Amino acid sequence: MTAQIIDGKAFAATVRAQVKEQVAHLIADHGITPGLAVVLVGEDPASQVYVRSKGKMTTEVGMASFEHKLDVDTSEAELLALIETLNNDPAVHGILVQLPLPGHMNSDLVINAINPAKDADGFHISNVGLLGTGQKSMVPCTPLGCLMMLRDHHGSLSGMNAVVLGRSNIVGKPMAQLLLGDSCTVTIAHSRTKDLAAVVRGADIVVAAVGRPQMVPGDWIKPGATVIDVGINRIDKPEGGTRLVGDVDFDSCAAVAGAITPVPGGVGPMTIACLLANTLTACCRANGLQEPE
Ligand code: NDP
């Protein structure tokens, strides 16, 4: 293996420690406790794990955590009413509605009902527009975590060729916007892209967010490139049981890349750390206080 491992777990711990320190100052100096409300509808097992983990880490950094668990057959109107309550609650600075929502709900409608200033996930259409036009916004947590790792590793990203695999609204598109904002030359690839291997081979930075286990092999990677693996896929182990893998084939990619994020322990922990950082930012903005760096 030649690649340097980008340790997202350690980086996320550092980010959380900084958030914790700033939360302590907010409480001590201003009597303000940042609060994050997480809304889960239904009993999707993966979502339950994420929500539990978000709640635990929110409390660990000294913020108030408000969990709202609703039945799978909750009506859209009931969910919208809860969001309205949270929008008007001064103790709540960040709101996150865990996706995916049950099929009878319109996710766009629900997300766009969140006060954009409290939109901790950055999915509200106003925040999408602000990000796209380079204005101050709430930035989606997963791409923000990827960008922080890239900046930490490279310093400036200016002029680098970046290929984002995947064009979802929650990862691929905002990732591309952020890389463009840092003056990369950005290509967004997707399931209709022709000769994906050749496209990826031109990249100094590859961000893989396709949701296909180990799809990217090492011979697609330009020697020395930086590979950020967003994928979280559970696969069967030959000896029984399951394990988590990313969207890139770690071993073959690590043999060629200059740096690579592991799965688990890469993008995942950074996503939650950025959620906490976003909540802190929202709290500072709501109270007219200086934002954390
Ligand atoms: P989506 O399913 O919404 O999007 C997947 C994208 O990948 C689509 O744009 C799709 O193209 C593209 N794609 C699918 N198959 C191929 C292929 N064979 N070749 C090229 N492109 C392809 O996924 P998400 O963006 O929500 O998530 C992506 C991955 O990231 C998942 O593994 C998810 O679990 C993980 N994830 C991890 C997070 C973390 O915190 N670490 C947070 C969020 C997601 P098209 O549009 O043409 O269909």
UniProtKB/TrEMBL annotation:
Record domain Tetrahydrofolate dehydrogenase/cyclohydrolase NAD(P)-binding: where: 140-285
Pathway: One-carbon metabolism; tetrahydrofolate interconversion
GO molecular function list: methenyltetrahydrofolate cyclohydrolase activity; methylenetetrahydrofolate dehydrogenase (NADP+) activity
A Pfam short name: THF_DHG_CYH_C
Reaction(s) the record says it catalyses: (6R)-5,10-methylene-5,6,7,8-tetrahydrofolate + NADP(+) = (6R)-5,10-methenyltetrahydrofolate + NADPH; (6R)-5,10-methenyltetrahydrofolate + H2O = (6R)-10-formyltetrahydrofolate + H(+)
Gene3D superfamilies: Leucine Dehydrogenase, chain A, domain 1 (3.40.50.10860), NAD(P)-binding Rossmann-like Domain (3.40.50.720)
The entry's keywords: Amino-acid biosynthesis, Histidine biosynthesis, Hydrolase, Methionine biosynthesis, Multifunctional enzyme, NADP, One-carbon metabolism, Oxidoreductase, Purine biosynthesis
Family statement drawn from the similarity comment of this UniProt entry: Belongs to the tetrahydrofolate dehydrogenase/cyclohydrolase family.
Name of the molecule in the record: Bifunctional protein FolD
Gene (name only): folD
